[in-house]
Amino acid sequence: MKETKDSSQRLNKAEKSWILYDVANSAFIMIVTATIPIYFRSLAEGSGMSGTSATSLWGSATSISILILALLSPVLGAIADYENMKKKIFTIFFVIAIAGGFLFTFAPGWLSFLIFFIISRIGYAACNIFYDAMLIDVTTDERMDRVSTCGYAFGYIGSCIPFVAGLLLILNCDTIGLPMVTATRISFVITMVWWIIMSIPLYKNVHQQYSLPHEPHVFAATFKRLGATFQKLAKDKRMLFFIIGYFCYIDGVYTIISMATTYGGEVGIDSNAMVLALLLTQFVAFPCSILSGTLAKKFGSMRMIKIFIVMYMAICLFGYGLDTELEFWILAVSVGICQGGIQALSRSYYGKIIPKDESSEYFGFFDVFGKFADFFGPLIISFCAYFFHNSKYGVLSLILLFAVGLILITLSEKQPTAAE
Protein backbone atom coordinates (compact mmCIF):
# COMPACT_ATOMS: atom_id res chain seq x y z
CA MET A 1 0.00 0.00 0.00
CA LYS A 2 1.31 3.40 -0.91
CA GLU A 3 1.47 5.98 1.81
CA THR A 4 -0.92 8.84 1.29
CA LYS A 5 -1.54 12.04 3.12
CA ASP A 6 -4.77 10.50 4.38
CA SER A 7 -3.00 7.47 5.87
CA SER A 8 -0.42 9.58 7.71
CA GLN A 9 -2.80 12.00 9.43
CA ARG A 10 -3.55 11.77 13.14
CA LEU A 11 -6.35 9.53 14.32
CA ASN A 12 -9.71 11.29 14.28
CA LYS A 13 -12.34 11.17 17.04
CA ALA A 14 -14.31 8.28 15.51
CA GLU A 15 -11.16 6.20 15.02
CA LYS A 16 -9.98 6.83 18.59
CA SER A 17 -13.41 5.96 19.97
CA TRP A 18 -13.46 2.71 18.00
CA ILE A 19 -9.98 1.82 19.30
CA LEU A 20 -11.06 2.49 22.89
CA TYR A 21 -13.67 -0.24 22.67
CA ASP A 22 -10.86 -2.73 22.09
CA VAL A 23 -9.34 -1.41 25.31
CA ALA A 24 -12.74 -1.94 26.95
CA ASN A 25 -13.53 -5.52 25.94
CA SER A 26 -9.97 -6.87 26.01
CA ALA A 27 -10.07 -6.55 29.80
CA PHE A 28 -12.89 -9.11 29.85
CA ILE A 29 -11.09 -11.67 27.72
CA MET A 30 -8.02 -11.20 29.92
CA ILE A 31 -9.88 -12.42 33.01
CA VAL A 32 -11.55 -15.16 30.93
CA THR A 33 -8.06 -16.43 30.09
CA ALA A 34 -6.38 -16.00 33.46
CA THR A 35 -8.69 -15.54 36.47
CA ILE A 36 -12.19 -16.88 35.76
CA PRO A 37 -11.18 -20.53 35.08
CA ILE A 38 -9.32 -20.66 38.42
CA TYR A 39 -12.32 -19.15 40.25
CA PHE A 40 -14.76 -21.60 38.63
CA ARG A 41 -12.52 -24.51 39.53
CA SER A 42 -12.53 -23.43 43.18
CA LEU A 43 -16.34 -23.17 43.16
CA ALA A 44 -16.73 -26.59 41.57
CA GLU A 45 -14.18 -28.36 43.77
CA GLY A 46 -15.67 -26.64 46.83
CA SER A 47 -18.97 -28.38 46.06
CA GLY A 48 -17.25 -31.77 45.96
CA MET A 49 -16.61 -32.02 42.22
CA SER A 50 -13.36 -33.57 41.01
CA GLY A 51 -10.77 -31.41 39.26
CA THR A 52 -11.13 -33.45 36.06
CA SER A 53 -14.89 -32.94 35.98
CA ALA A 54 -14.46 -29.21 36.60
CA THR A 55 -12.03 -28.93 33.68
CA SER A 56 -14.38 -30.90 31.44
CA LEU A 57 -17.36 -28.69 32.37
CA TRP A 58 -15.37 -25.51 31.77
CA GLY A 59 -14.28 -26.72 28.35
CA SER A 60 -17.86 -27.66 27.49
CA ALA A 61 -19.16 -24.23 28.55
CA THR A 62 -16.60 -22.49 26.36
CA SER A 63 -17.44 -24.73 23.40
CA ILE A 64 -21.20 -24.16 23.84
CA SER A 65 -20.84 -20.36 23.80
CA ILE A 66 -18.56 -20.52 20.76
CA LEU A 67 -20.87 -22.88 18.86
CA ILE A 68 -23.99 -20.80 19.51
CA LEU A 69 -22.31 -17.63 18.25
CA ALA A 70 -20.78 -19.37 15.24
CA LEU A 71 -24.24 -20.42 14.11
CA LEU A 72 -25.89 -17.05 14.80
CA SER A 73 -23.12 -14.75 13.52
CA PRO A 74 -24.08 -14.53 9.81
CA VAL A 75 -27.77 -13.98 10.61
CA LEU A 76 -27.06 -11.27 13.21
CA GLY A 77 -24.57 -9.62 10.88
CA ALA A 78 -27.02 -9.61 7.96
CA ILE A 79 -29.74 -7.94 10.06
CA ALA A 80 -27.26 -5.34 11.36
CA ASP A 81 -26.48 -4.16 7.81
CA TYR A 82 -29.83 -2.44 7.51
CA GLU A 83 -29.97 1.29 8.19
CA ASN A 84 -29.26 2.30 11.82
CA MET A 85 -29.34 -1.34 12.99
CA LYS A 86 -25.64 -1.99 13.66
CA LYS A 87 -25.35 -0.06 16.91
CA LYS A 88 -28.84 -1.11 18.09
CA ILE A 89 -28.02 -4.82 17.90
CA PHE A 90 -24.56 -4.14 19.32
CA THR A 91 -26.25 -2.48 22.32
CA ILE A 92 -28.55 -5.46 22.95
CA PHE A 93 -25.61 -7.85 23.20
CA PHE A 94 -23.52 -5.33 25.13
CA VAL A 95 -26.21 -5.23 27.82
CA ILE A 96 -26.39 -9.05 27.79
CA ALA A 97 -22.60 -9.28 28.20
CA ILE A 98 -22.40 -6.79 31.08
CA ALA A 99 -25.49 -8.14 32.87
CA GLY A 100 -24.16 -11.70 32.56
CA GLY A 101 -20.83 -10.51 33.93
CA PHE A 102 -22.33 -8.98 37.05
CA LEU A 103 -24.58 -12.02 37.54
CA PHE A 104 -21.76 -14.57 37.37
CA THR A 105 -19.68 -12.37 39.69
CA PHE A 106 -22.20 -12.85 42.49
CA ALA A 107 -23.44 -16.32 41.51
CA PRO A 108 -23.74 -18.49 44.65
CA GLY A 109 -22.70 -21.81 43.07
CA TRP A 110 -20.83 -23.35 40.16
CA LEU A 111 -23.95 -24.10 38.06
CA SER A 112 -25.37 -20.58 38.17
CA PHE A 113 -21.85 -19.21 37.60
CA LEU A 114 -21.48 -21.38 34.49
CA ILE A 115 -24.88 -20.40 33.07
CA PHE A 116 -24.28 -16.67 33.53
CA PHE A 117 -20.74 -16.99 32.17
CA ILE A 118 -22.05 -18.59 28.96
CA ILE A 119 -24.57 -15.74 28.61
CA SER A 120 -21.86 -13.10 29.15
CA ARG A 121 -19.43 -14.82 26.77
CA ILE A 122 -22.10 -14.96 24.04
CA GLY A 123 -22.82 -11.24 24.51
CA TYR A 124 -19.11 -10.41 24.35
CA ALA A 125 -18.54 -12.41 21.17
CA ALA A 126 -21.66 -11.04 19.45
CA CYS A 127 -20.56 -7.47 20.18
CA ASN A 128 -17.28 -8.19 18.41
CA ILE A 129 -19.08 -9.00 15.14
CA PHE A 130 -20.54 -5.50 14.99
CA TYR A 131 -17.45 -3.87 16.46
CA ASP A 132 -15.26 -5.36 13.72
CA ALA A 133 -17.82 -4.32 11.10
CA MET A 134 -17.73 -0.73 12.43
CA LEU A 135 -14.12 -0.51 11.24
CA ILE A 136 -15.32 0.38 7.74
CA ASP A 137 -17.58 3.10 9.22
CA VAL A 138 -14.81 4.93 11.08
CA THR A 139 -11.96 4.97 8.56
CA THR A 140 -10.88 4.61 4.95
CA ASP A 141 -9.21 1.69 3.16
CA GLU A 142 -5.92 3.63 3.21
CA ARG A 143 -6.02 3.96 7.01
CA MET A 144 -7.61 0.62 7.84
CA ASP A 145 -4.39 -1.29 8.63
CA ARG A 146 -3.23 1.47 10.96
CA VAL A 147 -6.54 1.78 12.82
CA SER A 148 -7.02 -1.98 13.14
CA THR A 149 -3.51 -2.55 14.50
CA CYS A 150 -3.94 0.35 16.95
CA GLY A 151 -7.10 -1.34 18.20
CA TYR A 152 -5.26 -4.55 19.02
CA ALA A 153 -2.23 -2.68 20.35
CA PHE A 154 -4.09 -0.48 22.83
CA GLY A 155 -6.38 -3.39 23.66
CA TYR A 156 -3.37 -5.41 24.79
CA ILE A 157 -1.87 -2.70 26.95
CA GLY A 158 -5.19 -1.31 28.21
CA SER A 159 -6.48 -4.70 29.33
CA CYS A 160 -3.55 -4.98 31.71
CA ILE A 161 -4.73 -2.01 33.82
CA PRO A 162 -7.89 -3.53 35.35
CA PHE A 163 -6.32 -7.00 35.31
CA VAL A 164 -3.27 -5.93 37.31
CA ALA A 165 -5.48 -3.93 39.70
CA GLY A 166 -7.62 -7.01 40.31
CA LEU A 167 -4.59 -9.30 40.57
CA LEU A 168 -2.94 -7.07 43.18
CA LEU A 169 -6.19 -7.09 45.15
CA ILE A 170 -6.32 -10.91 45.08
CA LEU A 171 -2.63 -11.35 45.98
CA ASN A 172 -2.91 -8.91 48.90
CA CYS A 173 -6.34 -9.94 50.16
CA ASP A 174 -4.97 -11.23 53.48
CA THR A 175 -3.11 -7.99 54.09
CA ILE A 176 -6.21 -5.84 53.59
CA GLY A 177 -8.48 -8.27 55.43
CA LEU A 178 -10.61 -9.52 52.52
CA PRO A 179 -11.55 -13.14 51.85
CA MET A 180 -10.04 -14.30 48.54
CA VAL A 181 -13.51 -14.99 47.11
CA THR A 182 -14.56 -11.39 47.81
CA ALA A 183 -11.32 -10.00 46.37
CA THR A 184 -11.80 -12.08 43.21
CA ARG A 185 -15.39 -10.87 42.84
CA ILE A 186 -14.27 -7.26 43.23
CA SER A 187 -11.69 -7.85 40.48
CA PHE A 188 -14.54 -8.99 38.18
CA VAL A 189 -16.53 -5.84 39.06
CA ILE A 190 -13.49 -3.67 38.24
CA THR A 191 -13.35 -5.30 34.80
CA MET A 192 -17.06 -4.79 34.11
CA VAL A 193 -16.96 -1.13 35.17
CA TRP A 194 -13.86 -0.61 33.00
CA TRP A 195 -15.69 -2.21 30.06
CA ILE A 196 -18.67 0.15 30.48
CA ILE A 197 -16.64 3.35 30.89
CA MET A 198 -14.31 2.67 27.95
CA SER A 199 -17.29 1.91 25.69
CA ILE A 200 -18.88 5.35 26.12
CA PRO A 201 -16.82 7.08 23.36
CA LEU A 202 -17.92 4.46 20.81
CA TYR A 203 -21.57 5.22 21.58
CA LYS A 204 -20.99 8.97 21.27
CA ASN A 205 -18.73 9.17 18.22
CA VAL A 206 -19.11 6.07 16.02
CA HIS A 207 -22.02 6.05 13.56
CA GLN A 208 -23.05 3.66 10.81
CA GLN A 209 -21.95 5.11 7.47
CA TYR A 210 -22.75 2.18 5.17
CA SER A 211 -26.09 0.41 5.21
CA LEU A 212 -28.82 -1.23 3.19
CA PRO A 213 -32.32 0.28 2.91
CA HIS A 214 -34.95 -1.22 5.20
CA GLU A 215 -36.94 -4.17 3.89
CA PRO A 216 -40.65 -4.69 4.68
CA HIS A 217 -39.97 -8.28 5.75
CA VAL A 218 -36.55 -8.12 7.42
CA PHE A 219 -36.11 -11.76 8.45
CA ALA A 220 -37.21 -13.21 5.11
CA ALA A 221 -34.98 -10.72 3.29
CA THR A 222 -32.08 -11.56 5.62
CA PHE A 223 -32.13 -15.28 4.86
CA LYS A 224 -32.51 -14.53 1.15
CA ARG A 225 -29.41 -12.31 1.35
CA LEU A 226 -27.46 -15.01 3.19
CA GLY A 227 -28.15 -17.45 0.37
CA ALA A 228 -27.03 -14.86 -2.17
CA THR A 229 -23.87 -14.20 -0.13
CA PHE A 230 -22.95 -17.89 -0.15
CA GLN A 231 -23.25 -17.82 -3.93
CA LYS A 232 -21.10 -14.67 -4.14
CA LEU A 233 -18.43 -16.23 -1.92
CA ALA A 234 -18.36 -19.32 -4.15
CA LYS A 235 -17.83 -17.12 -7.22
CA ASP A 236 -15.34 -14.69 -5.68
CA LYS A 237 -12.30 -16.98 -5.55
CA ARG A 238 -10.07 -14.32 -4.04
CA MET A 239 -12.34 -13.89 -1.00
CA LEU A 240 -13.10 -17.63 -0.77
CA PHE A 241 -9.44 -18.69 -0.75
CA PHE A 242 -8.58 -15.94 1.72
CA ILE A 243 -11.29 -16.79 4.23
CA ILE A 244 -10.51 -20.54 4.14
CA GLY A 245 -6.80 -19.76 4.45
CA TYR A 246 -7.64 -17.42 7.33
CA PHE A 247 -9.48 -20.27 9.06
CA CYS A 248 -6.38 -22.45 8.85
CA TYR A 249 -3.76 -20.01 10.11
CA ILE A 250 -5.95 -18.27 12.70
CA ASP A 251 -6.75 -21.75 14.03
CA GLY A 252 -3.05 -22.09 14.85
CA VAL A 253 -2.89 -18.58 16.36
CA TYR A 254 -5.88 -19.12 18.66
CA THR A 255 -4.70 -22.57 19.69
CA ILE A 256 -1.34 -21.20 20.79
CA ILE A 257 -3.07 -18.42 22.77
CA SER A 258 -5.65 -20.67 24.46
CA MET A 259 -3.41 -23.66 25.16
CA ALA A 260 -0.20 -21.87 26.20
CA THR A 261 -0.70 -22.15 29.96
CA THR A 262 -1.96 -25.75 29.72
CA TYR A 263 1.07 -26.72 27.66
CA GLY A 264 3.41 -24.78 29.96
CA GLY A 265 2.05 -26.65 32.97
CA GLU A 266 2.53 -29.97 31.20
CA VAL A 267 6.23 -29.32 30.62
CA GLY A 268 6.67 -28.20 34.24
CA ILE A 269 6.60 -24.39 34.06
CA ASP A 270 5.66 -22.69 37.36
CA SER A 271 2.12 -21.23 37.36
CA ASN A 272 3.27 -17.81 38.61
CA ALA A 273 5.83 -17.67 35.83
CA MET A 274 3.11 -18.44 33.28
CA VAL A 275 0.89 -15.59 34.53
CA LEU A 276 3.82 -13.18 34.34
CA ALA A 277 4.68 -14.48 30.88
CA LEU A 278 1.07 -13.82 29.83
CA LEU A 279 1.43 -10.21 30.99
CA LEU A 280 4.75 -9.91 29.15
CA THR A 281 3.06 -11.11 25.96
CA GLN A 282 0.50 -8.29 26.31
CA PHE A 283 3.21 -5.65 26.79
CA VAL A 284 5.30 -6.92 23.88
CA ALA A 285 2.20 -7.08 21.65
CA PHE A 286 1.48 -3.37 22.19
CA PRO A 287 4.42 -1.82 20.29
CA CYS A 288 4.66 -4.73 17.85
CA SER A 289 1.02 -4.36 16.81
CA ILE A 290 1.54 -0.66 16.07
CA LEU A 291 4.77 -1.47 14.22
CA SER A 292 2.96 -4.05 12.08
CA GLY A 293 0.56 -1.33 10.91
CA THR A 294 3.51 0.88 9.92
CA LEU A 295 5.20 -1.99 8.08
CA ALA A 296 1.94 -2.90 6.33
CA LYS A 297 1.76 0.65 4.99
CA LYS A 298 5.21 0.19 3.47
CA PHE A 299 5.14 -3.45 2.36
CA GLY A 300 1.43 -4.27 2.16
CA SER A 301 -0.82 -6.04 4.67
CA MET A 302 -0.84 -9.37 2.78
CA ARG A 303 2.95 -9.58 2.74
CA MET A 304 3.07 -8.88 6.48
CA ILE A 305 0.44 -11.56 7.15
CA LYS A 306 2.62 -14.06 5.27
CA ILE A 307 5.68 -13.06 7.29
CA PHE A 308 3.77 -13.55 10.55
CA ILE A 309 2.59 -16.99 9.40
CA VAL A 310 6.19 -18.06 8.73
CA MET A 311 7.18 -16.70 12.16
CA TYR A 312 4.41 -18.75 13.76
CA MET A 313 5.69 -21.86 12.03
CA ALA A 314 9.07 -21.19 13.65
CA ILE A 315 7.33 -20.67 17.00
CA CYS A 316 5.67 -24.10 16.69
CA LEU A 317 9.02 -25.70 15.96
CA PHE A 318 10.56 -23.93 18.96
CA GLY A 319 7.60 -24.89 21.17
CA TYR A 320 8.04 -28.55 20.24
CA GLY A 321 11.46 -28.56 21.89
CA LEU A 322 10.49 -26.33 24.85
CA ASP A 323 11.39 -27.72 28.28
CA THR A 324 12.72 -24.84 30.43
CA GLU A 325 11.25 -21.71 31.97
CA LEU A 326 13.64 -19.48 29.99
CA GLU A 327 12.43 -21.03 26.75
CA PHE A 328 8.82 -20.40 27.81
CA TRP A 329 9.66 -16.70 28.31
CA ILE A 330 11.26 -16.61 24.85
CA LEU A 331 8.11 -18.22 23.45
CA ALA A 332 5.93 -15.60 25.20
CA VAL A 333 7.95 -12.75 23.65
CA SER A 334 7.83 -14.38 20.21
CA VAL A 335 4.04 -14.78 20.36
CA GLY A 336 3.68 -11.18 21.52
CA ILE A 337 5.60 -10.00 18.45
CA CYS A 338 3.23 -11.79 16.07
CA GLN A 339 -0.25 -12.19 17.50
CA GLY A 340 -1.53 -8.62 17.41
CA GLY A 341 -0.22 -7.95 13.93
CA ILE A 342 -1.60 -11.08 12.28
CA GLN A 343 -5.07 -10.63 13.81
CA ALA A 344 -5.30 -6.89 13.11
CA LEU A 345 -4.01 -7.07 9.53
CA SER A 346 -6.29 -10.02 8.75
CA ARG A 347 -9.25 -7.94 9.94
CA SER A 348 -8.27 -4.86 7.98
CA TYR A 349 -7.40 -6.77 4.78
CA TYR A 350 -10.79 -8.49 4.90
CA GLY A 351 -12.48 -5.14 5.53
CA LYS A 352 -10.97 -3.80 2.30
CA ILE A 353 -12.20 -6.61 0.04
CA ILE A 354 -15.81 -6.95 1.26
CA PRO A 355 -18.83 -4.88 0.13
CA LYS A 356 -19.03 -1.91 2.49
CA ASP A 357 -22.84 -1.85 2.79
CA GLU A 358 -22.87 -5.54 3.79
CA SER A 359 -19.94 -5.36 6.21
CA SER A 360 -21.75 -6.82 9.24
CA GLU A 361 -22.95 -9.83 7.28
CA TYR A 362 -19.50 -10.51 5.84
CA PHE A 363 -17.87 -10.02 9.25
CA GLY A 364 -20.45 -12.48 10.55
CA PHE A 365 -18.96 -15.08 8.21
CA PHE A 366 -15.48 -13.92 9.22
CA ASP A 367 -16.48 -14.50 12.84
CA VAL A 368 -17.78 -18.00 12.05
CA PHE A 369 -14.37 -19.03 10.77
CA GLY A 370 -12.65 -17.44 13.75
CA LYS A 371 -15.01 -19.09 16.25
CA PHE A 372 -14.72 -22.57 14.74
CA ALA A 373 -10.96 -22.15 14.70
CA ASP A 374 -11.11 -21.43 18.43
CA PHE A 375 -13.32 -24.50 18.83
CA PHE A 376 -11.37 -26.86 16.55
CA GLY A 377 -7.77 -25.94 17.34
CA PRO A 378 -7.53 -27.26 20.91
CA LEU A 379 -8.94 -30.59 19.69
CA ILE A 380 -5.72 -31.09 17.71
CA ILE A 381 -3.65 -30.70 20.86
CA SER A 382 -6.00 -32.98 22.81
CA PHE A 383 -5.92 -35.63 20.07
CA CYS A 384 -2.13 -35.73 20.03
CA ALA A 385 -1.95 -35.73 23.82
CA TYR A 386 -4.32 -38.71 23.95
CA PHE A 387 -2.76 -40.84 21.23
CA PHE A 388 0.90 -39.87 21.61
CA HIS A 389 0.77 -39.13 25.37
CA ASN A 390 2.49 -35.80 24.76
CA SER A 391 1.13 -32.42 23.62
CA LYS A 392 4.42 -31.56 21.91
CA TYR A 393 3.32 -33.42 18.80
CA GLY A 394 0.15 -31.33 18.74
CA VAL A 395 2.19 -28.14 18.85
CA LEU A 396 4.35 -29.43 16.01
CA SER A 397 1.28 -30.41 13.95
CA LEU A 398 0.10 -26.78 13.99
CA ILE A 399 2.81 -26.09 11.40
CA LEU A 400 0.61 -27.87 8.87
CA LEU A 401 -2.28 -25.49 9.58
CA PHE A 402 -0.05 -22.47 9.08
CA ALA A 403 1.41 -23.97 5.89
CA VAL A 404 -2.02 -24.65 4.37
CA GLY A 405 -3.17 -21.16 5.35
CA LEU A 406 -0.10 -19.64 3.69
CA ILE A 407 -0.71 -21.58 0.47
CA LEU A 408 -4.37 -20.59 0.30
CA ILE A 409 -3.91 -16.86 0.90
CA THR A 410 -1.12 -16.89 -1.69
CA LEU A 411 -3.55 -18.46 -4.15
CA SER A 412 -6.17 -15.86 -3.21
CA GLU A 413 -3.90 -13.06 -4.43
CA LYS A 414 -3.75 -14.68 -7.87
CA GLN A 415 -7.53 -14.89 -8.22
CA PRO A 416 -9.71 -12.24 -9.83
CA THR A 417 -12.68 -10.94 -7.82
CA ALA A 418 -16.20 -11.86 -8.87
CA ALA A 419 -16.57 -8.36 -10.34
CA GLU A 420 -13.51 -8.86 -12.52
From TrEMBL:
GO terms for molecular function: transmembrane transporter activity. One of its GO terms (cellular component) is plasma membrane. Residues 1-415 form the Major facilitator superfamily (MFS) profile domain. The chain crosses the membrane at residues 20-40, 60-82, 89-107, 113-131, 152-171, 183-203, 240-261, 273-292, 304-322, 362-388, 394-411. This is MFS transporter. It comes from Gallintestinimicrobium propionicum. InterPro entries: Atg22-like, ATG22/LtaA_families, MFS_dom, MFS_trans_sf. Its main location: membrane. It is found in: Cell membrane. It is a multi-pass membrane protein. The lineage of its organism: Bacteria, Bacillati, Bacillota, Clostridia, Lachnospirales. It comes from the Bacteria.
